[in-house]
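## retry 2 of 3
previous attempt timed out at serialization; input unchanged, resubmitting
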Amino acid sequence: MSNTPMAASPLTRAVLEIDEYVSGLGWDQPARLFALVDTARLRAEEPRLAAQLGLEDAPETAGLTPIEQDEVPASQPLDEFLATIAWPAAVTGCALTVERLMLPPSAEAQVPSDLNEARLAKWVAAYPDRQEVRMTVAVLRDGTRDSAVRLREKDTPTEVLTGGALVPGLAEALSATFAD
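## retry succeeded, writing output
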């Protein structure tokens, strides 16, 4: 957690830790899914796993530990994949990183209405003012949300935007993975 502010909430620290980890892997990465577990509970209930993760010396108030899950299938739409997830009780929350192209609000009026999904993707990719972004969105069982958004053109830790309402649709989809 070298670049995460200690004054931030545990969820914000986890989001920034995941953002930093994925940033170290470079761009053009697949979506990545993480379980978020309570660090103190993990150390108490799974000491070997905590040691493998380097948490034996973590402060008691370390907060949340992200644990990367198996690959997110690229062949399946993300919303369909998320609808298949059910978390065990030990998982406090979850997070997902995904890269997307983002258009400025002014582009909305220019989008042709007769495009199917594949043609729309090509249109967005060719749009001159598009931005490549990496979004890390996390939710807790209690509904708390946070996210980090990193622009490829401003790829530094000091330029990462954070906030609970930055990517509401993805946060809703992640929250649904905790529904009974």
